[in-house]
Specification:
CATH topology of one domain: Rossmann fold
Radius of gyration: 38 Å
Distance between the termini: 90 Å
Structural class: alpha/beta
Number of strands: 7
Shape: flat
CATH class of one domain: Alpha Beta
Number of helices: 16
Strand order of the largest sheet: 2-3-6-1-7
Largest sheet: 5 strands, parallel
């Protein structure tokens, strides 16, 4: 869409992991060196962690492309499997095509395969991406697989790649034995400001751009600020900024445009209705008072209904109503007038109409209330 406008051969900030767009910051280079060392020296257990979007998978795929053909590996990117399926998938990827349906016999077959690979001077690796999603049961299964060895030589080397949650899971008591077996640990850090600038310019150049100032300095500073140096976030912001620049026919991406893109990409909170906001602000004491008032109103309503059924419009019933009015005050007045149909300020005529009594024989309502009090 915007590639021709900016004289680009392809989208420079696509989320795909094309080898031509690979950029390694200082932390990435260190991590890649440790992973390569783990492969060459057969270090057994290697743990690599990093925040989502920091480039773990991209770097891992770069490592796999450079592996010697003598290295056999099983790469698992979706660890949400049962222990049986996990074992079967690993064995299949390492070359065991015909498998027993029995787990016990499958383990025997798998160990025999690993011994054959070792005899051929072929190193076997199990690489698990998104390892923070591994269940404790599956982590224990992996630990047991790492116990396979012959004459002191490990038959299977294991790489666990995941987000920081993986460290918390491994520090659990149930993973104590597994944690003790890990030989190399490394945490991948995000890019710093200068690396962010190099990353942006490097991807633009790889996409065919000859203008190194397509993003001005203020724009790059804001991209680093909002992305926190995480490559995936950088890609999203830059891609949206180029699209915005294309729509406005702007050849240079400015800080204001980055601000607009960040605002558009940020999740919006749904506005609360007034009643919902009031409910959220209510404390437990206020809620309890409302409940008590509601219970009182319901009790009065039930009692009033019973009085009506029992002929409450006799002189005795009216005295009971007056007593209730004095005790519950405004609350009963509202309930009474709401359900009796009398006006909020009852006069003599309305009472007479309701009761059907002669006005000359009727004691005024207010006077009767006074007598009742006395």
């Amino acid at each position: 869409m915007y590639t021709s406008f900016y004289n680009l051969k392809e989208r420079p900030f696509s989320l795909s992991t094309s080898p031509g767009f690979l950029y390694l910051g200082k932390s990435h280079k260190e991590a890649l060196s440790l992973l390569t060392y783990g492969v060459m020296d057969k270090k057994g257990f290697v743990l690599l962690t990093g925040e989502a979007g920091t480039g773990k998978t991209t770097m891992l795929q770069s490592l796999l492309r450079k592996l010697d053909p003598a290295v056999k590996y099983a790469f698992i990117s979706n660890p949400l499997l049962s222990p049986e399926d996990f074992l079967a998938y690993t064995a299949y990827k390492l070359g065991l095509k015909r498998q027993s349906k029995s787990k016990a016999f499958l383990l025997i077959q798998f160990e025999a395969l690993l011994k054959i690979l070792l005899g051929r001077q072929q190193n076997a690796f199990l690489i698990v991406d998104e390892a923070q999603d591994l269940s404790f049961r599956l982590l224990e299964e992996i630990r047991l697989l790492s116990n396979m060895e012959i004459q002191g030589k490990r038959l299977l080397n294991i790489f666990l790649i995941g987000q920081p949650d993986l460290n918390e899971k491994l520090n659990h008591d149930r993973c104590r034995s597994l944690l003790q077996r890990i030989n190399i640990k490394y945490h991948l850090e995000p890019l710093d400001l200068s690396e962010t600038e190099e990353y942006i310019k490097g991807r633009l150049k790889a996409a065919g751009s000859k203008d190194g100032r397509l993003f001005n300095k203020h724009a790059i500073d804001l991209i680093y600020h909002y992305s926190k140096g995480i490559p995936r976030n950088i890609n999203s912001l830059c891609d949206n900024a180029l699209l915005l620049g294309y729509s406005k026919t702007k050849k240079t991406i400015t800080g204001d445009m980055i601000e607009d893109c960040h605002a558009d990409m940020s999740p919006r909170k749904s506005p609360l209705r007034r009643n919902d906001a009031e409910k959220i602000d209510e404390g437990p004491e206020k809620i309890q008072r409302k409940r008590t008032g509601l219970k009182a109103a319901i009790g009065i309503l039930i009692l009033f209904t019973a009085l009506m059924i029992a002929g409450s419009f006799t002189n005795f019933g009216k005295r009971q109503i007056s007593i209730l009015r004095d005790v519950y005050g405004t609350l009963f007045t509202k309930v009474y007038h709401r359900f009796s149909g009398l006006p909020s300020t009852p006069d003599r005529t309305s009472i007479e109409e309701k009761t059907g009594e002669d006005s000359e024989n009727q004691t005024p309502f207010k006077k009767r209330m006074k007598i009742t009090k006395d």
